[in-house]
Amino acid sequence: xxxxxxxxxxxxxxxxxxxxxxxxxxxxxxxxxxxxxxxxxxxxxxxxxxxxxxxxxxxxxxxxxxxxxxxxxxxxxxxxxxxxxxxxxxxxxxxxxxxxxxxxxxxxxxxxxxxxxxxxxxxxxxxxxxxxxxxxxxxxxxxxxx
Length: 146
Known about the structure:
By secondary structure, the protein is of the alpha+beta class. It is 43% helix and 15% strand. A hairpin with a 5-residue loop joins strand 4 (49-53) and strand 5.
């Protein structure tokens, strides 16, 4: 058997309750639940749901809360870095080809498009999430994806 705490939305196996008590880490709002309930609510949640507690304190699938402003900013920062890395991976060899006079006209044009994209990307403020207008990435060619 298991115990469920609405305050932590966690399960506690009966055989470990003494250890939780000894460590003063056992919630006061435990209710007994069956093995079936335990298995239902420790499996994968339905889309857009997470384990929580119902009004009666028993396990329930509840809506996943929307991300916070800080979480959105962090996600936007990671996305900006991913895009910046992709741009630099394309720009570096093209710039080198131009530097050594080895670039075709197509490579020069691609370099210009990617450098402009990189400048626009540098102006993106992740703190503005979720209201970010991401610059459009230049169309990648086969050689850009290598």
